[in-house]
Each structure stands twice: as structure tokens, then as C-alpha cells.
Amino acid sequence: MPAKDLAGRKSTKRKQIDAEEIQSAELQSNGVLEMLSDEEEDGDASSDDGHVDEFPEIVNESSSEDSDYDEDDEDEDEEDTEDTEDENANESGADSDDSLHVFPKAKTIISRITKQPKTVYPEIEPNYDSDSSTEDTPNRVGDVPMHWYDDLPHIGYDINGKQVLRPARGDELDKFLATVDDSSAWTSAFDKNTQSDKPLTAEELDIIRRLYTNENPDAGYDPYEPTTEWFTGKGKEEIMPLSGALQPKRRWVPSKWEKQKVMKIVRAIRQGRILPSKPKTTSTSKFDAYAIWSEPSSSVVPPLPAPKPALPTNAESYNPPEEYLPTEEERKAWEALDPEDRERNYLPQKYSTLRLVPAYDRFIKERFFRQLDLYLAPRVQRVKLNIDPNSLIPKLPSPSSLKPFPTYKSLQFSHSNGRARCISVSPDGEWVISGDEGGVVSLWEIMVGREVKRWQFEGKIGALAWCPRSDVSYFAVGLEDKIHLVTPPNVDPAVLSLTQTVLAPTTLPTAPATPSTVKWTTPASATWSIDTPLLTMDLPASSSVPSHFCWHRKGDYLASVSTGGAQSNVWIHQISRRHSQSPFKKIKGAVQSVLFHPLKPHFFVATQQYVRIYNLSEQQLVKTLIPGIKWISSMDVHPSGDHLIVGGYDRKLCWFDLELSEKPYKVLRYHSRAIRSLQFHPAYPLFASSSDDGSIQIFHSRVYNDLMTDPLIVPLKILRGHQITDGLGVLQVKWCSKHPWLVSSGADGSVAVWCS
Amino acid sequence: MGRLKVKGKAGAAKNYTTRSSAVKKLQCSLADFRRLCILKGIFPREPRSRKKANKGSSAPTSFYYTKDIAYLAHEPVLKKLREHKAFAKKLSRAIGRGEWSSAKSLEENKPIYRLDHIIKERYPTFVDALRDIDDGLCMIFLFASLPSNARLPHELVENCARLAAEWQLYVMHSHSLRKVFLSIKGVYYQAEIMDQTVTWLVPYQFTQNVPADVDVRVMLTFLELYQTLLSFVFFKLYTDVGLVYPPPLDAKKDENGAGFNALSLQDSSRDSEPPQPNLTTIIEGRHITGKVVRQTIKNINAESVDSADVEMSNAEEVVEEAEEEFVLRPSTSDKTVNANLPTLQSLSTLPQTIMTNLFSPYTFFLSRETPRGVFEFLVRSFGGRIGWPSSSGSGSPFDETDPSITHVIIDRPVVEKQETPEQRELRLRRKYIQPQWIADCINAGKILLEEHYSQGKTLPPHLSPFGEYEGAYIPSGEDAEGERVEEEEEEAIEEEADVGTPAEERQAILNSVIAAATDDPTSLRAAELAAEAAGVDFGDFDAKMKKVAKKQKNITEKEIENAEQDMNKMMMSNKQRKLYEKMKYSNKKKDAERTELESRKKELKKQKRKQT
């Protein structure tokens, strides 16, 4: 019962205070001279007045209630006495020589009326003589502050108006000698009026002594006078009332209202509404049990039961198998850990017999923590999955059932100087051209890898693209500010002549109304050779190396993107009209890649984060795709034209169903580095992606005509074989159109053919 | 566009309340709030977004459901707590003023809260309550063993001890103990009551001291709740089997350290009136003379059916009696009335009967160094008879010289000493076993061979009867595996042993050659030649070659499969992948743990063999 304790403590404290007060009251009564009103409250002004005689009879009754009152009284008394003392001093100074009494002598006589002794003071005669104060006082200035005369030679005036000269006062040494010589010095006091010491009279000394010992200053005062019974005692009872008024009725008639109130309570007690004293209950009553579950419970859903603690395992046994005992390192590691981080809150121990098992010192603490868990820890209900983790892996058809796809590296062609940035496979799928950063473009056969022809250009080759027309044979080579259209050697003469007429017609088409900044130049027909390009397009200056080419399926339009320059340039070159145009006046963001739709007059433009689809014939934006990739690196469209894959430098590959949504249908992240290149196979349901981690991933991608069925994407094979140089891996992959073969070029300068 | 939504008026901001605002709302002190939460079983919740729940602040606070707090606001206990606050003020004032009589009357009318409605709310059915008494039992048993002091009044400790004894009596009476585990923390018991497993932990009998950093107030509040809950649960359990609750306490026996024997079970059907007077007299037993006690014992003996065993204590007798009646009832009573009862009983007791009378043919005697409380409870709940020396407490039904004793539970080393022929005979007739035997027998559900447990022998390891998680290391499964391991080891040892011989050298060459040779035919040919040069038999070589090829084939197949799976992983969604990784991680950890234990076991075995 803390409240009770507190109260008890308070009361004792109070008592203490009372006691102190009493003590201080005593002290007051004992040592009046020392009393200062400030010190009263301290209560410890007592220490230094042990020498004071005790006058226990003077101790006035000091109960706790009216001690304050007493103190006040005493204060007043004290002041009074001091006043009188002053007066006395003055007076005694005034009439020192004729030993006047302060008070006239009192006489004790027997009263005539009461027959009791009483003190009688002599009559004072009201003449000049009666006033002792007027007698022979040399200084008549009255009660003025004497320091007014401090600087003057006199100290006042006598009755005749003559100056009273200041008495000679010696220095301190004289004063001291005077006190030593004069035996009465210690009973004399300084009189301000005469500015000299005056001896005190015996009466005055007596008064001082009395005041000092807290007695009544009047010597004749008897504190123990017998009481005089005026109205009490035998025969002095008051018989007559003090007033003549009639007694009120209530003095003798019992109160009706009181009775009613009492009766009300009595009735309540009788009826049992008020229990006058409750029956005493025993201490165990709090836990009295009864059949609590016999009556039906409420429909309120009960709270979930708290989870039970885990059951002990073998390691907790007092005699566990030896392998459970921790090694020295484990013990140290366990001890070094914070108690919260420990997997177990005990160390396994082995005792040979039960007798030796000591008390578990953390028992109470563990119970306590369990309780803290019960009422302080938030609880969350978790569904515990008890499944084989392998069942989470999607079930896909086995790659072996989805053959053919490239599985091994059949041959490797290597460029000696620099990275092989770009490759292109001829439409008939027999030839490959590959370009490196040294300006070399090599033509070689896909079957054997033998180089047939090598062109040397200035600057690095940014892009290569073979014209998809089958009746002509040439390819575009992207260089710094230039695009060359080159014919390969060993071509059928009919094809060659057609190619030449296409690229360098005898009659040039009429120049378009709006002149382009791109210049088309053809060398004179006499200088034509296999080594030189048939047609050259000069892109405007500072437009950098074209990084991406894209042919329209009919082979008349070539779209080029150059990213390196001050602004990304997209050009669409029309071969038949020898005209280039920039389709966009202004485009938001840097264009990374462009594509022609295989069937529709649509044009895909991939900027850093978005893919926009434009309708070229209607000159308007069709759709914006949001792949959620930070930086798009490449994209390719499915031959059906309904699906698009977009790869990014942030390793993501997004599959878009163009009819579905602008968000990707599937986002895959499997490469450990940036994706560099993607391509769908034109005939087989395959696509490949290459990455800076040096690997090529082959997927099976079946697209169904049925709109309800989602495309099936099955990872088939990871092709490894390219070296990573300068953090770059496989830069470009291209499919061979007739076979499920893949050509890849790497940063290590090698170009590989992967066959099934 | 729907209506504009005002922030903080719906959703998480409204559903959750911080602790400080809850305290403010309930207008009580934090200590009272804690007490209420403990009693009502309200605990903080974790909002999905702390920021949303706390009006945009992410300061660390604990959240409660607002509905929980609203539910607390109408709690009668809260009202009582407020009344108590007023009472405390009044009392302190009365004491301060020295008004002793009014203080006394105030003290007499002190507000006391009862928790029965809370029990009913939290556990609407009996089974709910039974499911949740684990923690309560642990606390009761802990506090029953604590020394009482200023913070722990002795009434509390006594009440806990009484409840603990009542529980043990019930478990013994109903034969519902199933498992026992002697751990380093204490003794775990598991009982099965009404198809609910109840597990509780009892500390070993040592003086526990409460650590300074444990808040005893919290523990006492929990204890208050548990005491109430358990008394209701026990009431139901006792009355359901037709026993009087509370069982009368024999104060004299209690003083003599009889433990739970101080309580006696009484059948309520037999004497529906007597228990009241009986109870009162026995509770005030301190003032009762021994004569009266003897007389009452005699009375009870006269009533009891089995009066042969005069030495048996009163409690023991009543227990046995109740048992017998319990078993006999179906046969004696009218079959039509109890048509469904026997079937139910038989159904529920069918698996029990095998186990519960495990020790019934035996009579045990406890040596003085064994903890009596534990083993008396264990033996008697499995039907055995047990006696103990007087130093372990009074009330032993027989003493050490009793000829019926079959087993002596002893826990000290063997000491050679002189003995009289009688003692020798007694010793030979009895089996001296270490205490672990009892626990292991109970867990095994059968009487184990006493040899391994006899006095002074190194005990076999004591395993947890509760089992481990699935796929964990099982130490008892060593027999079959152990042999295999041994064989392997032997091979290894042999190999190690004779490396020096020429045959071994040849073998080594062969191994190296084969390892190099498996890939292509040319190297195979070279390997053959090398083998021949080393003088290895061709048949031997061929066989080995085939084995290696087979192994490699297996490996490659596995690899391909793994590679395919790895590739399929890239088609998983992010969520699935995370889940997969998590599961893989935990599985790997478990595997590592198991392999660690297995390897350590192997090592230990090796060491042992070396020593021998």
C-alpha cells in the first residue's frame, strides 16, 4: 500500500516538525536576547546558548496548533522589552546621582474588599517634581538624532539656550584603560544625550537581568498568584441568566429533521440497501473459482492466442550427444555476440549425472522476456510456406525439345586491330561482313570463315548493313560523317549491273523541292572498282559516326542514327531518289536506335527511356512505350510486327506486346552486365541477346496467332566464348537468315559463328 | 473524381493510436495502461506504413489498434483502477491526519478488481483457455519456488505453490503426462489434456534470485492473471472428473514438506456434503490435535475399499481409489445410460493404456540426492509406487527396507563398503538406476534395459522427446549410418596405411591416369598404354574405367539439369525469386548445421577409436 506508507511517512514528518517547533519555542523562552525573528524558522539557533539558565516554568504551553500564535506574541513582547530598556537607559542616565527608581516602590497590602493581598503603587503627584525627566538634564535638544551634532563642538543646548559642550572623550586606548581601571565600567552604558558613559543603577541592572532571563521586568510581579474566583466556586454559581430572552424551542425539543435523516438510514439498513459493515472477505477471494465456462460465451471473436515458444531441442539436454557441445571457437563467438543476436540463448553443456546440474541463472530473465514479448511486441501473422523451393521455378519445355538453336562455336574470325563493333549477314545468309574500329571491313564466308575481301576505310566503322533486296547486292558502311554503299566482289554480273544502275543511275532523279544537307556523290563510272564505294552520302559535319543502320524491308530506305555528335541525328535515306531527309525537326532525348515496322508504315524510335512509334504516312505519333529502363541500348521487332524487345544498359530486357499495353509484358534480368544487342531470328522462333558479361543468351520465343495465348519465352542456351576487354563483351549479334546460326562480334576483335 | 479526402480521417491514421495518445485517452497512468494491456491481452501492432499511421511522423512509437483502446475504455478493471487511485488518496489523507478509524474503514472497503470477466472474454471456451496455460504454468512453478520477501508476499508464493500442486495432482490423477525432458534450464513436461498439448518448464530446485533488471511489477501482473486463469481451469478440470475443487489442504503435512501430497483429492459424487466441514477443519489444521487427524484418517480408511495398505498416506489412497473407480465405472454402472461414455472413454484411453501404466508393476525408492518433487510426480503419473527417505520430506508410504521395492533411483557414484548379508540380498534383489532412466522410459513409452543406466555408469545421451525440425540431424539414427561410415573410414585408413607398397603405387598411378583419360579416345589410348607400362591388369583397368565413365555421365546429366533449372530461374518474377532465394538460404543453413554435426560426430568417433 504505497499510499498508506506515504501518508504514514508524512505524518511522521509532521511530528518531527512539531517537535522542532516545540524545541525552538523553548529556546525562545530561554534566550530572549539572542532571539532574532529570522533565526526562529531555522530551528537550530539553539546550539550556542547552552549557558543560559533554564526556566522551565516560563515555557508556555506550545501545542502544535497555536505555536505560531505564540511566536508572534513573543516577538511583540520582545520589542516591548527592548523599548522599555532603552527608556530605562535614558532615564537612568538622566538621574544617575540621586538613584531614582524607575518605577515607584510598590507596596503589597491586603485589600479591604476581597481580603486578598494586592500591590499598590504610590500616587503620582502631578507637579514639576513628579516628572523626573525634567530634572537637571543638561542637554535639552530632545529626541533628535545625535549625529546631527557629530561635526559640531557642542552636543546640544541646556535649558538656558547655552551650548552644552561635548565632553572630552579619549581615544580607544583611553577607553580601554578606563574599562580596565573602573570596576563599574561593565555596568555602565553609553548615553547618547550626554555623549558619555553612565553607570546603570541597581534597579536597571535588575531589570536587564530579568529581561535576559525572560522574567517579567517588574520585580514585584508574582506569576503564581492564587486565582481569584469571581463567578465560580462554591456559592458563586450563576443563577440568573445573562439575558432575559426566551429560550428557543430547539433547546429542548428533539429535531424532526434529524430524526427523518436517521430514519432514512435506518430504513436503508433494514432493507439491506446499506451494509453497515461488509462481511470480511478472505485474502484468497480474488481467485475464487467457479464454473465460468458453464454459461454460453459471447459471440465476440476471441483474440488470437499468442504463439507458443519453441520446444527444446537435443542441444538443450543436460546430457546431450557429444557432437552438440560447442568447440572453443564457437563458445567464444557465442560469448562475443550481443545477447539479442545469439541464435540460441544458452550454450549446450554436458553433465555426467543429474545431480551435477546447477541452477539455470537466466531462468527468471527468460520468463520475463517471454512476458515482454507477450505484451510489448507487435505480432504479425505469417503464412509459412512449406514447399520445395524448386517448385517455384517455372516449368518450361526442355531446351532439347526446342532444337534447333545455336549451341557451339563453329568458327572464329578475328580482326587484328581493335574491337569488332559491327557485323552484317547477307540476305542469302552466306556472307558476313564485319567491321572494326581500325576501319577495316572484311567479307568472309559464313561456312568456312575465309576472308574474301578486305576494305580499308579511314576512321572507325560504326555500322554495317546489307541491303535486304535479293536482286541487288550491296551494303552500307557507316563512317565518320559518311555513309558508303559498297558492292561485294564475285557477284553475279546481272546482279552487279542492276546494283550499279540502282546506285548510280545514268539519269539522276530530279532533285526534291526541299534540298537536303546530305550530299550524294557517285564517282565517275571509269573509276569504279571493287575497292571503292559506288555511292557516298556525306552527312552534315560534326554528326559523328552512324552507330545504327536499319533497312526498310523493300530495300529502298535506309535509316541511320548517329549518337556520338552534338545532337543525335536520325536520317532516312531514299536510294531510288538519292535523297535524305531528317524525319524529326526536334526530338526529345537522344535517339539510341530506330526500326522500320516489318509490315506497316510505322517507325520505331528509341530514345534513352522511351520507345515512340510513329506512323510515317500519316506523320503522327502512334504510341509511346515505357519500358522502365534507365538507358535503352537496343531493340528489335518480331517479324510478325506485333512484339518488340528492348534491351538496356541496366541489364533489363523488356518484351512488349504492341497490341496490349505500353508497359512491358515481361521484364527479364539475367545478364550480369549491360545488354548490348538483341535480335529476333527472321525465320526461326528464336532471339538472342548479347551482353558486356561476355555471354550470349539464346531464347526460344514462340508467338501465337491466337490473341488469348501469351507468347512463350524459354531460355535455351548461354553461349560463352568471347573475352571481355576493357569492360566490353559481345558488341553485336546477328542471325543468319536461312539457318539457326548466330554471328557475334566481340570487343576482343573476334567474330564468331555459332551453329546448331 | 470522387469526393476529396481529408488527410488523417480514414485508413491507417484512424485505425492506429500511439501509446501516448492511448494513455491520454484512457486517462490513466502508464503503469495502469501496461497493467490493462497485460490483463486484456492487448499488444501493439505494426502498421504497414508507420508514417501513415503517425500523421507523417516517423518517430519511433508503438501503435495500438484504436478499436482495442476504445474497447479498453469500457473496461471494469479500468474503473476499479481509478477507484483505487481515489482510495489511495483518501487513505493517505486519513493517515496524514491521524484519523485512524476512518483509515481503517477505508482499508476495509478497498476496491478490489476481479478478473473473471476478462478470463471469459479472452477464452470463450474451455479449450481456448487450456491451449494458453503453458506460460501460466511456467510462472506458477517459478513463483512457487521463489523465496518470499517484501515485494513477493508469502500469500502469493503459497497460492502459487498450491496451484502447482493442484496441477500436478490432476496430471497424476488423469494420467495425462506424455513426455519429460531434463534440460539444462529445468525439467520440461508435456501433458495431453483434452487433445491439447500443454508444455511447462519447472526450474530445478535451487533458490532463484530475481535479477535487478527484471521488472517485478510486470511479472506480478502476469502472475495475477495466470493465477485467476489457472484456478478457473483447474476448477473445470477437477469438477469434470468429479473431484472437489479446491482440494483440501492438510496443513500439518504441508509443514512437514509433503509437497503436493498435502492436498488430498476427494470425490465430489461420493461425499457431496462432507467436503465443506472437512475442508474447514483441515484448513484450520494447525489447531487440530494429532488425535483428530488420526480419527479422520481412520474414517477415510474405513470408507475406502482398499484398506490393505495401511502405511500408504491418505492422499495416495484416495488417488488410487479414484483411479479404481474411474476404471471400474463402466462395468458397474448401467450400460444403457452410459452407452456413449465407455466408447468415448475407450477411444480416448486406447493409446494411453499402453503407456500410462508403464511403471505400475514396479515400486521405486528415491535415494536422498534425487529431487523428490520431479521423480515422485513422474513415477506416480505413470502408475508406479514410490517411497523416499524422511530427509526428502514426510509422507513416504514405505521405507527403504520394504521388500516390495524393485528399483532404487540413485544418483551417486558406486562406493565399496561393508554390508551385512541382509543388505546384500536386498541390493541384489533391487535394481539401482540413475534418474535419467525414468525420463527415457517415459519418452520411449516402454521399459528400457536397466543396464545402461545402472549406478555409476556413463549414461547414454538424453535426447529431446519433442523432436527437431524436419531434416535435422538425428543423433539416434547412427546405427545404420555409423557402420557405413565405419567402412568408408576403414577404407580410408587402409589407403592411408599402406601407401608405401608397390601395389598401392600402381593403384595411385591408375587413378591418376584414369582421371586424365576420360574425355577423348586418344587420351584413353594413352592411358591404356600408361596403365600397361605400370603393370596394371587390363581387366582391373577396364572395370575402373567404366566406373569412372558412369560416374562422370551421372555428373554431366546432373549438371545439364542444373543448368536448365538455372536458366529457368530467369523467368521467375522478382517476388518469386526473392522467396526462392530466402528458402534456399534457410535450407542451406539447415544443411550446413546438419553436416557440421555429422562431421563432428565422425571426428569424435575417430578419436575414440584412436584412444582404444
TrEMBL record, chain A:
Keyword Cell division: no
Localisation per UniProt entry: Nucleus, Nucleolus; Nucleus, Nucleoplasm
Entry keyword set: Nucleus, Repeat, Ribosome biogenesis, rRNA processing, WD repeat
GO biological process annotation, one example: maturation of 5.8S rRNA from tricistronic rRNA transcript (SSU-rRNA, 5.8S rRNA, LSU-rRNA)
Superkingdom in the source lineage: Eukaryota
Chief place of localization: nucleus
SUBUNIT field: Component of the NOP7 complex, composed of ERB1, NOP7 and YTM1. Within the NOP7 complex ERB1 appears to interact directly with NOP7 and YTM1. The NOP7 complex also associates with the 66S pre-ribosome.
Protein family according to the UniProt entry: Belongs to the WD repeat BOP1/ERB1 family.
Protein name: Ribosome biogenesis protein ERB1
UniProtKB/TrEMBL annotation, chain B:
Primary site of residence: nucleus
UniProt entry tagged with the keyword GTP-binding: no
GO BP of this protein: maturation of 5.8S rRNA from tricistronic rRNA transcript (SSU-rRNA, 5.8S rRNA, LSU-rRNA); maturation of LSU-rRNA from tricistronic rRNA transcript (SSU-rRNA, 5.8S rRNA, LSU-rRNA)
Compositionally biased region (Acidic residues): 478-498
Region spans: Disordered: 475-502, 574-612
Parts of the chain that traverse the membrane: none
SUPFAM superfamilies (UniProt xref): BRCT domain (SSF52113)
Keywords for this protein: Nucleus, Ribosome biogenesis, rRNA processing
Record's compositionally biased regions (Basic residues): 602-612
CDD domains per the UniProt record, alphabetical: BRCT_pescadillo_like
Entry GO CC: nucleoplasm; PeBoW complex; preribosome, large subunit precursor
UniProt GO molecular function: ribonucleoprotein complex binding; RNA binding
Span of domain BRCT: 354-455
Subcellular location: Nucleus, Nucleolus; Nucleus, Nucleoplasm
Residue ranges, compositional bias (Basic and acidic residues): 578-601
Gene3D superfamilies found in the cross-reference section: BRCT domain
Function: Component of the NOP7 complex, which is required for maturation of the 25S and 5.8S ribosomal RNAs and formation of the 60S ribosome.
Quaternary assembly: Component of the NOP7 complex, composed of ERB1, NOP7 and YTM1. Within the NOP7 complex ERB1 appears to interact directly with NOP7 and YTM1. The NOP7 complex also associates with the 66S pre-ribosome.
Family: Belongs to the pescadillo family.
Protein name as it appears in the record: Pescadillo homolog
Record gene name: NOP7
